[in-house]
């Protein structure tokens, strides 16, 4: 059973999410919060598997709440936003969220996303994350991180990371580098381990923030 905490300042929105999730045999909503501060407290108390997190809330926004929940290792966070190019969503990804969905996503996609996050996957496609980074780092508004963090990677791992950041799937990367898909997955796993990253989404963010990939590159 996957335990879910709902966080949104709109009660009707929480009610809708609850109806969708509780209708699944393998999902259970264990709590609700109307702001980020309550979310942090409930995550520590209830230890849900996944927190479905709004980003724009009173008292404490979803970005800071995400950072605190992830830092405490209390749950994985799936951010819900109204706009697909939302600076709050990007900030939440930087803070450790495992991905984001639009609030008007179809119910079956919401259910699939919660299951994916619970199993350790990221639910934001690299291409969507790339659009976010193109938008918010493309004008020079983001300060680059020290690229020496990438020194731990082999040349092949750097190649894989570049292609991940450019939005290619594992299958596409395998074809481009003449590798098996299993080998690509192994390389990606080593990249995440060496760079202390949670998932593919954070790998894409880091590739941009270190300048390994430049906004606007095809």
Automatic annotation (TrEMBL):
In its keyword annotation, does this UniProt entry include Transcription regulation?
A: yes
- Ranges for domain HTH luxR-type come to 146-211
Q: Where would I find the Response regulatory domain in this sequence? A: 3-118
Q: Which residues carry this modification: 4-aspartylphosphate?
A: 54
Q: Which InterPro entries does the record match to this protein?
A: CheY-like_superfamily (IPR011006), NreC/VraR/RcsB-like_REC (IPR058245), Sig_transdc_resp-reg_C-effctor (IPR016032), Sig_transdc_resp-reg_receiver (IPR001789), Tscrpt_reg_LuxR_C (IPR000792), WalR-like (IPR039420)
Keyword presence, Zinc: no
A single Pfam family it belongs to is: GerE
Keywords, comma-separated and alphabetical: DNA-binding, Phosphoprotein, Transcription, Transcription regulation
Question: Per its UniProt entry, which superkingdom is the organism in?
Answer: Bacteria
- Which PANTHER family does its entry note? TRANSCRIPTIONAL REGULATORY PROTEIN NARL-RELATED, TWO-COMPONENT RESPONSE REGULATOR
Task: Spell out the protein name for this chain.
Answer: Response regulator transcription factor
């Amino acid at each position: 059973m996957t335990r879910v905490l709902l966080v949104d300042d709109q009660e009707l929105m929480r009610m809708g999410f609850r109806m969708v999730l509780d209708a699944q045999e393998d999902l259970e909503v264990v709590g609700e919060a109307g702001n980020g501060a309550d979310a942090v407290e409930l995550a520590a108390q209830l230890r849900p598997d996944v927190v479905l997190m709004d980003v724009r809330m009173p008292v404490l926004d979803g970005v800071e709440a995400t950072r605190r929940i992830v830092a405490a290792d209390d749950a994985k966070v799936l951010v819900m936003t109204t706009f697909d190019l939302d600076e709050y969503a990007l900030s939440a990804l930087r803070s450790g969220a495992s991905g984001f969905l639009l609030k008007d996503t179809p119910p079956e996609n919401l259910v699939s996303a919660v299951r994916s996050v619970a199993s350790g996957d990221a639910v934001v496609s690299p291409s969507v994350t790339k659009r976010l980074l193109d938008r918010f780092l493309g004008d020079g508004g983001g300060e680059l991180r020290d690229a020496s963090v990438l020194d731990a990677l082999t040349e092949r791992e750097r190649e894989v990371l570049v292609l991940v950041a450019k939005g290619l799937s594992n299958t596409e990367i395998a074809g481009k580098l003449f590798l098996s898909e299993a080998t690509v997955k192994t390389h990606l796993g080593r990249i995440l381990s060496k760079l202390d990253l949670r998932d593919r989404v954070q790998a894409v963010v880091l590739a941009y923030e270190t300048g390994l990939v430049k906004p606007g590159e095809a």
